[in-house]
Amino acid sequence: MYGWHGKILRVDLTNSKTSIEDVDPKIAKDYLGGRGWAIRYLTDEVDPLVEPLDPENKLIFATGPLTATTAPTGNRYMVVTKSPLTGALAHSNSGGDFPTWLKRTGFDLVIFEGKAEKPVYLWVNEDEVEIRSAEHLWGQDVPGTTDALLAATNPKAKVACIGPAGENLVLMAAIMNDKDRAAARSGVGAVMGSKNLKGVVAFGKKNPPFADDEAMRSLSKKIYKEVGVDMKAGSTLREHGTAYVPQVTNALGILPTRNWQEGTFEGVDTIDGPTLTEKYLIKPKPCYRCPIACGRLTEVPSGKYAGKGEGPEYETISSFGSGCGVDNLAAVTKANYWCNELGLDTISTGMTIAVAMEMYEKGYLAEDEIGQPLRFGDADAMIDMVQKMAYRDGFGNELAEGSYRFADKYGHPELAVTTRKQEFPGYDPRGAQGMGLLYATSNKGASHMEGDVAYEEVFGTPVKEDPHSVKGKAELVAWYQDAFSLIDSSGLCVFLALRYVFNKDRLILPTILSELMTYATGVDYDPYDIMNAADRVYTLERTFLIKAGSTEDTLPPRMLNEPLPDGPAKGQVNRLDEMLPDYYKVRGWDENGVPTEEKKAELGI
């Protein structure tokens, strides 16, 4: 094979055995790689009704054919499993350095099955694969674990691991790599913890050859050059990272504020990108071979929130900042550091705390139940809850179940702003109609990384779509969902693929990616083939979802019934009922959202 290694490393944790197998070339071609390959194997091997934390669930690390290549931002991997947070699918994405090192071991996928009797870690040094004891590491945070694993293996290797949150089966636990990068959403870290798998260490120098090396390098160089021109011209993403976004969403009235009760935040100027850059930025921090460098290496130099690490990004700011009513950027940054060190998804963690704050302020929670006051704007209480959630300490044990289960237990599930029990990211769908349709139909629960139509509704890339209109949103959402499926399967980052490759014409994306994939793999992909494959991946995920019993495409009551009270989107609710029937027709699904037999036959499922 070209581009792909065509090899899977299977890790039987129950029996402490490993094996290597070849990938069927037809599966390779039809499902592209990365997310596509992983969902195909998960569907073939895992009962959709399995309990997510049961040993029968499987955890898959998956790289794409463009991971570890010359393709700009070709440095992503996926973690695919059944989610303990949603009871549906999880396909969480991360960058950093680890994905390239994982691909260079000579394996495209690593499939973990069963459960180790005692804590272990996996050391993959090309063909030398060992399952080693991690009993001495259980209980350690992410930085300590990473340093210990590198000392025990190879200081030039790269590490993905869980922190205390994953060990304690917190339902929004992340898998952290390179200390500060996260496959964050849907509780993938809890699945890893349920298997007594503390970490994965990867090192190798195996790169699969390209089918057309000269063409691949030439096109990659052209894209690098175009992106470089934009960066030198003063890209906002390079200058401030995604932290520039609060001002954008606030101006549209869709910045989540005090648990989505409002769409504008009076303290936005104190938690935005320019403030982060001025006060705490050390330097931009790119993923491996990335010309964009949207990551932020930061430091709060002194005071009770002192610390150093990576972040915060926009989603963290919107959850711990405006979402919790906190206008202290140092405190938001500290919460971000704690999430990275303990292994928590910042979106679900912050938004779950925000739900608790609203319940406390409305009198649905008593101070003696929590152990302390918990009001919007209380930065110290917010940070304290982050730590308690990771360790399931006291009231943190309640929040560790996620906002929906927590709010439901206390009699107010309507206050949890979730889809499939997963907390919303930072775009209020009352003022961005397409985002609401996206959240409702996402295979993994509410996630902007499932098909972020905010590129057009919010940022105007490649064209500006009216965020308050429902016209054409069914087609737009379906296209973006397939586009993200393609990007995740290829091993690229959405920032390159969406912000820079097709900044003038949406249709450039499948053209460029079909060329890159063809040069890398030797499969003669054209734009239609590659989008059809992406549709195949998305539809197969949907069939798994339905068999798992997650069949309702809806939004929480606040989004459908409570108009935004302020800002440019004042008076708006999400009009999901107007978009959903058209979306099902565009997808080739029946009126209940089930893929038709004709659609599955068309895709070869």
List the main descriptive attributes of the protein structure presented here.
605 residues; alpha+beta; Aldehyde Ferredoxin Oxidoreductase,  A, domain 1; Aldehyde Ferredoxin Oxidoreductase Protein, subunit A, domain 2; Aldehyde Ferredoxin Oxidoreductase Protein, subunit A, domain 3; 3 domains; six-stranded mixed sheet; globular
Write up this protein:
The chain has 605 residues and is of the alpha+beta class. The protein has three domains: 7-203, Aldehyde ferredoxin oxidoreductase, N-terminal domain (Aldehyde Ferredoxin Oxidoreductase,  A, domain 1); 237-407, Aldehyde Ferredoxin Oxidoreductase Protein, subunit A, domain 2, CATH 1.10.569.10; 433-603, Aldehyde Ferredoxin Oxidoreductase Protein, subunit A, domain 3 (Orthogonal Bundle), CATH 1.10.599.10. Helix content is 41%, strand content 14%. It is built from 26 helices and 17 strands. The chain has a six-stranded mixed β-sheet with strand order 2-1-6-3-4-5. β4 and β5 form a beta hairpin. α11 crosses α12 (329-342) and α18 (433-441) packs across α25 (576-587). The longest helix is centred in the C-terminal third of the chain and has 21 residues, at 527-547. The radius of gyration is 22 Å and the shape is globular.
